[in-house]
């Protein structure tokens, strides 16, 4: 059994979960579930980033202590994970003592090695982004981009990490590890960023300006800034489980790839004598109805409410089916309902109901053994073998949207097989050959449904469980053994009916 460690970015608690947070968790969950199905021993980490000036200000504005504010918002992220059936092993919070301890240990280690020094800094500072800015961050007309909010010029003493001296090491590391960033074209962006000299990294804030942070172990008048706090959490979670380090995949949004996770993080780990992660997976952004997602303009989706209305697995399916990993995509109710009705209700749901209905109608609710088969059955079996092999390769390459397309093409082919065999006609015949063919047909569609379902647990865990349940089937412990055409459903008692994807009756939980 191979150990497999996968992490997500930790979400900043200055706001409630949105569609982007939901997608990142579901995407990572699909990978984690697939690796478990393949037999790996998976450790799946997610969590929240709870320190910083914006949290301190938000708590003050709300009139509550920062810790209380963090407790309340972090619970929203926990609830989202539970709601979306996320199978994380651990949920880390940067205010936890286990995390603070590791951060202080690493900071002291680097300070003792001379990797951290104190210097006076004069420059422009963005409170909104909690970062110092350079002239290259300005717009062409000299103004500051709106993303930075109010920008002020300040002079203060701070501690700096010797980032620049590791620049050549990182460039060489990226060249030796061409798959360090997925998709690969994102790795080129990292190297382009590294074409310019790096500045040493400011890693502290004076406590007189920011109290809500982890105090530097070598100077109590300062707290550590986000880089040596948030980025350390992935290591914190498995420090007592060294068999899982380094992380196999770290899943993040493309906006925080460069420089935080692709530059600062590996260099920080290198300086600490810790092996860097094996790979970063940078996913794209969702727009809503063709426009940028924004609560202020009302253009947003509440993932929890959407899941309540349409079902968790329907939302999971749409997000994974609609977005090519690494690319941007658009979330619209029109497209969601198109996939919901055509692919889930009318294709998969229809196949389930036809299988149950005809097995009950013509075989007393018990799946019969196939008595004969010809080229029609063999054609469907060959399609299954092709589908299975393609889907496994697509899952390995994170091409989940195409894997689902292939899976549902097989479901479509199974429905077409039913039309070709027309069991409702065979059931009216008293001819022995027709009756034998009827049994073969019922056995074939049940087995095809079982196999299609076997490809779905990573994306639609609840739906897969329900379908197996109505087929009277309990999958075995070794998932790959489930992917071979067989007679294992013979004699199973099926349910009378199942409504997996009911027709929506009320307006969607989507604002525009």
TrEMBL record:
Top EC class, one word: ligase
Keywords of the record: Aminoacyl-tRNA synthetase, ATP-binding, Ligase, Nucleotide-binding, Protein biosynthesis
InterPro entries for the chain: Anticodon_Met, Met-tRNA_synth_2, Methionyl/Leucyl_tRNA_Synth, MetRS_core, Rossmann-like_a/b/a_fold, tRNAsynth_Ia_anticodon-bd
BP terms from Gene Ontology: methionyl-tRNA aminoacylation
Keyword Protein biosynthesis belongs to the record: yes
GO molecular function, one term: methionine-tRNA ligase activity
Protein biosynthesis as UniProt keyword: yes
Domain Methionyl/Leucyl tRNA synthetase: 5-136, 148-356
Gene3D superfamilies with a match to the protein in the record: 2.170.220.10, HUPs, Isoleucyl-tRNA Synthetase, Domain 1
Pfam family, one: tRNA-synt_1g
Superkingdom of origin: Bacteria
This enzyme's EC code(s): 6.1.1.10
Entry similarity comment: Belongs to the class-I aminoacyl-tRNA synthetase family.
Protein name: methionine--tRNA ligase
Species this protein is from: Nibricoccus aquaticus
């Amino acid at each position: 059994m191979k150990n497999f460690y996968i992490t997500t970015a930790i979400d900043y608690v200055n706001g409630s979960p949105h569609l982007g947070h939901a997608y990142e968790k579901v995407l990572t969950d699909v990978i984690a579930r697939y690796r478990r199905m393949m037999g790996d021993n998976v450790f799946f980490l997610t969590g929240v980033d709870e320190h910083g000036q914006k949290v301190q200000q938000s708590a003050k504005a709300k009139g509550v202590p920062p810790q209380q504010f963090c407790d309340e918002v972090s619970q929203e992220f926990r609830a989202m994970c539970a709601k979306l059936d996320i199978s994380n092993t651990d949920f880390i919070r940067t205010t936890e003592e286990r995390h603070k301890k590791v951060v202080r240990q690493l900071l002291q280690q680097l300070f003792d090695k001379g990797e951290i020094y104190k210097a006076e800094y004069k420059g422009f500072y963005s409170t909104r982004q909690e970062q110092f800015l350079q002239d290259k961050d300005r717009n062409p007309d000299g103004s500051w981009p709106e993303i930075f909010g109010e920008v002020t010029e300040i002079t203060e003493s701070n501690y700096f990490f010797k980032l620049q001296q590791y620049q050549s090491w990182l460039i060489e590391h990226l060249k030796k590890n061409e798959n360090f960033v997925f998709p690969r074209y994102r790795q080129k962006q990292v190297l382009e960023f590294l074409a310019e000299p790096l500045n040493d990294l400011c890693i502290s804030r004076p406590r007189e300006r920011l109290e809500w942070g982890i105090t530097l172990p070598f100077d109590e008048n300062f707290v550590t800034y986000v880089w040596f706090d948030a980025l350390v959490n992935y290591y914190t979670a498995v420090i007592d489980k060294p068999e899982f380090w380094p992380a196999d995949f770290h899943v993040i949004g493309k906006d925080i790839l460069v420089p935080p996770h692709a530059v600062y993080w590996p260099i920080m780990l290198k300086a600490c004598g810790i092996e860097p992660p094996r790979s970063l997976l940078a996913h794209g952004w969702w727009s809503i109805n063709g426009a940028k997602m924004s609560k202020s303009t009302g253009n947003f989706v509440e993932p929890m409410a959407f899941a309540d209305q349409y079902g968790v697995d329907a939302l999971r399916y749409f997000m994974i089916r609609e977005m090519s990993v690494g690319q941007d995509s658009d979330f619209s109710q029109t497209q969601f309902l198109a996939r919901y009705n055509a692919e889930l209700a009318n294709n998969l749901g229809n196949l389930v109901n036809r299988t149950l209905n005809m097995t009950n109608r013509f075989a007393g609710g018990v799946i019969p053994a196939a008595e004969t088969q010809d080229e029609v059955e063999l054609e469907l079996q060959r399609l299954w073998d092709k589908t299975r092999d393609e889907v496994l390769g697509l899952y390995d390459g994170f091409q989940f949207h195409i894997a689902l397309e292939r899976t549902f093409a097989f479901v479509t082919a199974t429905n077409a097989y039913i039309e070709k065999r027309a069991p409702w006609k065979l059931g009216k015949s008293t001819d022995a050959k027709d009756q034998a063919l009827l049994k073969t047909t019922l056995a074939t569609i049940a087995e095809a449904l079982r196999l299609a379902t076997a490809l779905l647990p990573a994306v639609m865990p609840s739906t897969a469980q329900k379908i197996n349940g109505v087929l009277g089937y309990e999958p075995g412990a070794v998932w790959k053994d489930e992917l071979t055409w067989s007679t294992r459903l013979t004699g199973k008692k099926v349910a009378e009916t199942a409504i997996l994807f009911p027709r929506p009756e009320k307006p969607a939980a989507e604002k525009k």
